[in-house]
Q: What sequence folds into this?
């Protein structure tokens, strides 16, 4: 999916890494033409050595521009990868250009501008995928996919590939992984929740939201809790500022990477709206202003530059929000060293139309695009499970011990060699070995993730990519204005009503309605192309 969101990139990286190191071994049938997350089952592809026809391939060396970190055993791991690769793709060697995440976007821009020759390139959350396509950085690969991607089409749901399509053309193969939006969960010390939290009322209110935006009733549940904490002298630092990011759950972001435009998941009219004009965001600003005055929000919220550091501390915040997986309370308790309760504040998971956060493209400078697609096909299917895990964990017997076909045991943390390349970066994360014990009720964390995807609400806008070439300047202006008024999210702005009116007025004068109308046209055209009717505007 998904969605994670772009407002929480650093948190997404943590979630994705956690998913990577925990394995999955189910394969998915995926020839459905409708965008559905049903994964089903398929026959396990053959892991026999490469076909006789492939054995006649000319010797080539593929250059792979990929996100990763060089380690002390990197050369050994890559040599082992190339040795084993001969079993699957004869006469093929890979040279890896490892680039650390903080440097990746800038390094790629320089490489693309200079016309450096690479056969494969990772693409994902560090830069705008559509922008890269429009610059001509990647080859269109629809035909290559049809010719060399048969195994991928058998194992990966068809709708996954829509994440890397632009104007109907495929430009990358998305990593098959957790594609859903991150369901929000309230964190609070368990000792306080046991005394003051109303579990029954909270579940009734939150789980009946059904995709709707937050209302006063939702906030009243939180306020009743904070009121009791304050009266008992146990409020401490009160509410963290992480709630605002959860308001976009249930919305599809349709304005490009930074555009503040959304479509509500449960809106059958598919109306594009400027996010900051929505009733939900205006209500949020009003509530935060009230809560700041009541002392539920720390007084130094505006000047504090590292507010997240006080989450998960005994004397820190008593309420903060992030994603909510199964057994999240146990995970938070273990990570923070004292009992923490994680309470879901929404019931459903959603798959939204953002670009894939991880994918593999074939650059326009590729010397061997056909062989590159053959390798991508292997790395994203059961056939290449061994190769993927070499990159993710290293060499069996040296860097890990195999316990079962999908479970491994890593050495003690102080002697462990971190992976050169994260599993979700190199291929299908559901084929990455599990290095942690299975969670209760599931064969693995990966099995839990697949269950989420099977039951998630799929946005009809999956695959939508806005063309912002006509409105990019205005979008940049709108985003700059929004940055000026982020203080409204914190509740500490005096005369917030007047400041809000000033904010919206600036957005209007900068052309927000013109941008909205253009995006609405594109959304309507996309939905119509999929046979979905839209109302007359």
A:
């Amino acid at each position: 999916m998904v969605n994670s969101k772009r407002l929480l990139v650093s948190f997404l990286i943590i979630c994705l890494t956690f998913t990577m190191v925990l394995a999955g071994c189910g394969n998915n049938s995926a020839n459905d033409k409708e965008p559905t997350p049903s994964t089903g089952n398929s026959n396990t592809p053959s892991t026999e050595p490469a076909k006789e026809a492939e054995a006649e391939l000319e010797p080539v060396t593929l250059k792979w521009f990929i996100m990763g970190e060089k380690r002390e055993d990197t050369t050994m791991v890559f040599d082992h990868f190339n040795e084993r690769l001969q079993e699957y793709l004869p006469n093929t060697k890979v040279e890896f250009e490892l680039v650390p995440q903080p440097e990746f976007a800038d390094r790629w821009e320089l490489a693309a501008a200079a016309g450096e020759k690479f056969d494969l390139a990772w693409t994902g959350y560090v830069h705008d995928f559509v922008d890269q396509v429009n610059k001509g950085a990647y080859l269109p690969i629809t035909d290559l996919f049809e010719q060399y991607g048969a195994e991928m089409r058998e194992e990966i749901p068809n709708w996954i590939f829509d994440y890397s399509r632009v104007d109907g053309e495929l430009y990358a193969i998305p990593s098959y992984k957790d594609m859903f939006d991150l369901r929000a969960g309230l964190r609070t010390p368990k000792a306080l929740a046991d005394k003051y939290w109303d579990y029954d009322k909270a579940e009734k209110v939150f789980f009946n939201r059904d995709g709707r935006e937050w209302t006063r009733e939702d906030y009243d549940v939180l306020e009743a809790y904070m009121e009791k904490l304050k009266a008992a002298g146990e409020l401490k630092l009160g509410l963290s500022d992480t709630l605002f990011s959860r308001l976009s759950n249930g919305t599809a972001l349709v304005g490009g990477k930074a555009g503040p435009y959304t479509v509500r998941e449960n809106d059958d009219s598919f109306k594009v709206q400027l996010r900051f004009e929505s009733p939900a965001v205006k209500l949020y600003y009003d509530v935060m202003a009230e809560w700041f005055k009541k002392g539920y929000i720390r007084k130094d919220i505006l000047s504090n530059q590292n507010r997240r550091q006080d989450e998960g501390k005994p004397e820190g915040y008593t309420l903060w929000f992030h994603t909510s997986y199964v057994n999240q309370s146990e995970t938070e308790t273990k990570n923070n060293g004292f009992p923490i309760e994680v309470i879901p504040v929404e019931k459903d998971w959603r798959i939204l139309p953002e670009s894939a956060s991880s994918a593999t493209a074939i650059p326009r400078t590729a010397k061997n695009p056909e062989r590159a697609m053959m390798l991508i096909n292997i790395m994203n299917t059961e056939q290449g499970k061994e190769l993927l895990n070499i990159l993710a964990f290293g060499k069996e017997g040296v860097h890990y011990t195999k316990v079962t076909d999908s479970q491994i045991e890593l050495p003690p943390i102080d002697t462990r060699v971190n992976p050169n390349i994260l599993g979700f970066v190199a291929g299908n994360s559901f084929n990455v070995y599990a290095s942690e014990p299975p969670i209760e009720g599931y064969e693995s964390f990966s099995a839990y993730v697949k269950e989420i995807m099977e039951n998630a609400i799929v946005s009809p806008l999956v695959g939508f990519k806005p063309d912002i070439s006509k409105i990019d300047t205005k979008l940049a202006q709108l985003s700059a204005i929004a940055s000026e008024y982020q203080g409204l999210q914190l509740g500490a702005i005096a005369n917030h009503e007047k400041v809000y009116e000033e904010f919206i007025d600036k957005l209007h004068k900068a052309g927000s309605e013109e941008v909205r109308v253009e995006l609405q046209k594109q959304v309507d055209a996309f939905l119509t192309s999929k046979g979905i009717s839209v109302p007359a505007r």
Notes: The two ends are 29 Å apart (CA to CA).
